[in-house]
Amino acid sequence: MGSGGYSYIEISYAQLLLSIILVLITGIISALLQLGLIKSLLWGTVRAFVQLTLIGYVLSFIFKLDNWAVILLIILLMCYIASREASRRIKKPMVKPDAVSFLALTASTFLVGMIVVVFIVAPDPWYTPQVMIPIFGMILGNSMNGIALALDRMYGEIYGHLDEVEQLLALGATPFEAVRDYVKEALRAGMTPTINSLMVVGLVSLPGMMTGQILAGMDPAVAVRYQFVVMVMIAAAVAMGCLIIVGLSYRSMFNEDMALNEKLYRNN
Amino acid sequence: MQDFFRFTELTYYLGSREREIRISGELKPGYVLVVKGPSGSGKSTLLKVMARLVKAQGGEIIYRDKNWYAYSPYAWRTCIQYVPQKPVMFRGNGRENLYKPFLLKGIREDRIFNEEKVREYLDIFSLPPQILEQEAITLSGGEAARLSFIRALLIEPSIILLDEPTAYLDQENRIKVLRFFSRWVKEEPGRGIVLISHQENDIEEFSDTSFISLGG
Ligand SMILES: Nc1ncnc2c1ncn2[C@@H]1O[C@H](COP(=O)(O)OP(=O)(O)O)[C@@H](O)[C@H]1O
Ligand SMILES: [Mg+2]
């Protein structure tokens, strides 16, 4: 599979131990300049090692599974964790956005992820966990950021323009007409980072996935194709996720009489 | 018609739930109902409740013999037009600001934008026609206030809720605006005004007035 006979080089445990040198470099800098970071550095190093080791075992276990239902369940769990993280980042929600973020993430991730896995990568069987888990994981990591940005911006814009929204309602606007400009702003905020990353990819840095595949011995030309698919997939999932979450959320800022929800004033 | 605009036991909270206001009263056709009360007594909120922009906790308004909830919120708000004290201008020029309501659900389908009327109102409120091309958020307070009156009038409401309409106006424009509204309310049957004003001499400009008062 590799180009020119190269395949990946294993890092043995002995070699791994050598990476302590790198931790030492960081530690010495912190000690010399009295940055007070030694404790966090040690704790961080231990945590990183333990977490990665654990996830390694978990992934080895999952990759041996041959049951599509269990794999879908694992992905649902990933969606749940990502949605918790996304809603944690929203500063002033009207309603706790746990349910809507879960819905937005799950719907967008599954639709886009399935298109990629089933039609583009097309492994056999389609639920091959070595393909499903990383693909869905990458989508979730990005959509999570996207929907958090979009929702946060939507609330921020509307809180900042209550007079305008109220004036539009007085002039006969529906709730959607009254917040349309702010909804657009929110979608733009959510989608801009992924669209910008399309512009600079390969120029500023090589994406982690592509780097990994090249280190693992994949022909760079193939790795590039993968990377392209992944990036447009992320953009599509982020766009969908933002649209869903904003669409499901703006209405909660209004009451049943199509006026601004009185809670909005009290939160201010 | 028994009732033109009658509100009974209208109940609402001010900000937090600590203060509750309950008020009844009536606006007769052709009249100006003046809302009195010290600053912070809930006058502006009352107008928003009347316009269904703030939820009433209880009570009702009967308009033309029908309960207020018999009307859609869009029909209600364009018919009972609230004009806030601080004028709100949107991005775009003066004309786009005047045109705004004609793009919205309330009147989109049953009114057309009347350029003739726009010129007439600009003239009445002493605004130069160039104001239509000017970026609206760059207008002075007094200009924006008058443009917001024109925007409200173009909707052709039956009742206008005016929150301290003269706050941003100089003496000359203050008289012009008040005289205009005192004519407007009598010009056609079935019109009315609810007015908040701190200035006694604002009220002198109107012929038929009644009062309600909010406690401190
Ligand atoms: N959106 C709001 N959030 C918090 N408090 C409010 C809000 N609107 C009104 N209030 C409170 O309600 C009271 C009455 O306000 P308002 O109706 O504007 O009074 P007035 O117009 O008579 O001066 C004020 O004390 C104000 O602090
Ligand atoms: Mg007020």
UniProtKB/TrEMBL annotation, chain A:
The chain crosses the membrane at residues 12-33, 40-62, 68-87, 99-121, 133-151, 198-216, 228-250. InterPro entries: UPF0014_fam. This is Putative ABC transport system permease protein. It is found in: Membrane. The keyword Protein biosynthesis does not apply. It is a multi-pass membrane protein. It holds the Pfam family UPF0014. Belongs to the UPF0014 family. Coiled coil: none annotated.
UniProtKB/TrEMBL annotation, chain B:
CDD domains: ABC_ATPase. It comes from the Bacteria. SMART domains: AAA. The keyword Nucleotide-binding applies. Residues 5-216 form the ABC transporter domain. Keywords: ATP-binding, Nucleotide-binding. PANTHER family: ABC TRANSPORT PROTEIN ATP-BINDING COMPONENT-RELATED (PTHR43119), ABC TRANSPORTER DOMAIN-CONTAINING PROTEIN (PTHR43119:SF1). One of its GO terms (molecular function) is ATP binding. This is Putative ABC transport system ATP-binding protein.
